[in-house]
Amino acid sequence: MYKCLFNHELLIAGTTQTPWQRYEKGICEAQLRGFIEELQGTDVDAVMLCPTAWRRNLWPSRVDPHWQNEAPGMPEPCPGTPMKYHEKAYFRWREFMLRGLDPVEITCDAVRKAGMGLFFSYRMNDHHHFVHRNSPTHNTPYLQLRDAQFLPGRPLDENTTGFLDYADERVRRYYFEILRELWFRYSPDGLELDFMRSPVFFREGTDGTEVMTKFVRDIRGMIGAKPLCVRVPATPAEAMKAGLDVATWLREGLVDMVNVSSFFINDLRLGIRQYRALSNRGAIYGEMHFIVESGAFGDFSNNVFRKTNREQYRAMAHRYLSQGADGVSLFNFDYTRDHHFGEPRRLGDFGCEPPLDVLRGITDFRSLDAASRHYYFRANQFDEKDDRNARLQIVLSPCRRSVLRVTLKDAMRSPMVRAHLDGEPLPEIMYPGELFAPLTTEALPEHARTWFFELPANASGSHTLTLSQVGLKRSEWTSAEYAVYK
Asked: How many CB atoms lie within 10 A of CB 143?
């Protein structure tokens, strides 16, 4: 059984500056192999290769022959032409693909040489760039299906999302054919159906569970006895709402691995125990992401995020394994690197190398239990909150010291914040800043928005943390986080 799944989005090799590749030169083979080779010596034992640039397939496909038939005749943008992010990504990949190279084949070879399991992770309804109707990262089969389901020429916006409807047999047939091509062309060790990019498959008010179960059953029949993984919403109830009947899939032996996801930002509340209770069949994985919070540079907030630090990764892995997960998974781990094509509004923020060292021992519960950990809850992850009070359950364990930090939206010392643990007041303390060393300074809170409290170092088990704002003024809650220092 695999213990650590690593989602590798092939797109990143064309958008990111790394030790092997800068923007000044085109994509090279060392860039493709480097993302895999750097995982050697870590707990990662399965690479979940996403072989697309959003909806654009990144191999010479016969089902979708874009690189052979369409790309050669596309006009090149003139030097200096303003381009959107997805256009920059496409034309960078186009230059590579028109050299007759196959980045999927190169990456598969690197994974096998590294001795890790090779899975394809295919996005079952990718949402990126819907509002850009003619984005070059939309492939022709998608455009044809989309226009058959929506009014031709109608602009795609927040009211016409562009998600394909799986009730349409043509949609299911396309996805089956593209997956079958990948499966028999490259012979991977397993397959993951990524239902989290994005979990919308049927028109509102439609129950599509039987349709989707039949689709999963067809995929199982295609791949035979090799492992089938599904990346699904945080709880079984959320999955069912999207038409994903994971309980039936496990009961019938249709899937072997369930990758429980919070979509894009970390969430310690993943329903590991709920999925574990569905069946004693199948391995359960808790997913971790590279960010814990969104933020801004002044008025600029596009892709500005507070990065997940080492102690936060350890806290999540410890939590999920303690709740019965068989392993952990990682999504977007490498996106700490600079991937913004020199966006001028991000000057001074150059990204950083991903914390690969934290992946050594990330599946070893005893090692994690002995390590310092950092638990983080965004305000929308609180159990309850209003403009004065907030409540959440936290799990403590004996340690050398434990410190709580609470953050509000507004930078002011009024209102004051008070904290209680199981009804007992926690002493407010002075603290120098971050609980642990951050990966970058991006999206860190100003000190004037934070309050620190001492948590009991000898406490263990689940406890109720209650927060309150005292004073005439009010501010929105931003986060509550606590450190366990071992």
From this structure: 15
ω into 425 cis (within 30 of 0): no
What Å distances lie between residue 479 and 299, 403, 444, 471, 475, CA to CA? 21, 14, 12, 19, 12
CA distance 476 to 486: 32
Comparing CA positions, the residue from 451, 296, 288, 295 lying closest to residue 359 is 288
- What's the token pair of residue 173? 């047939």
Are the C-beta atoms of residues 117 and 46 closer than 8 Å to each other?
yes
- Cα 48 from Cα 469, distance rounded (Å): 45
Phi, psi of 350 (to 5 degrees): -100, 10
CA distances from 120 to 9, 52, 265 (A): 10, 10, 22
Q: How far apart are CA 110 and CA 370, in angstroms?
A: 34
Q: What is the SS3 assignment for 310? A: helix
Our CA angle for 215, 213, 323, nearest 5°, is 120
Say if residue 264 is exposed, middle or buried (CB neighbours under 10 Å; 0-12, 13-18, 19+): middle
Are the C-beta atoms of 100 and 106 separated by less than 8 Å? no
- Side chain identity at residue 409, one-letter code: K
Contact 21, 338 (CB under 8 A): no
Distances (CA, A) of 350 to 23, 337, 340: 13, 7, 9
- Strands of 384-385's sheet in order across: 384-385, 389-396, 461-470, 416-421, 424-425
User: Quick one: residue 371, left, alpha or beta (phi over 0 = left, psi -120 to 50 = alpha)?
Assistant: beta
Tokens of 367: 């090692």
Q: CA nearest 351: which of 318, 307, 319, 393?
A: 307
Are 195 and 155 contacting, i.e. CB atoms less than 8 angstroms apart? no
Q: Phi/psi at 469 (nearest 5 deg)?
A: -105, 130
Question: pLDDT 10s per residue in the chain (486 long)?
Answer: 999 999 999 999 999 999 999 999 999 999 999 999 999 999 999 999 999 999 999 999 999 999 999 999 998 888 888 899 999 999 999 999 999 999 999 999 999 999 999 999 999 999 998 888 789 999 999 999 988 887 555 555 544 568 999 999 999 999 999 999 999 999 999 999 999 998 999 988 889 999 999 999 999 999 999 999 999 999 999 999 999 999 999 999 999 999 999 999 999 999 999 999 998 899 999 999 999 999 876 677 778 899 999 999 999 999 999 999 999 999 999 999 999 998 887 776 768 999 999 999 999 999 999 999 999 999 999 999 998 999 999 999 999 999 999 999 987 666 689 999 999 999 999 998 899 999 999 999 988 899 999 999 999 999 999 999 998 788 999 999 999 999
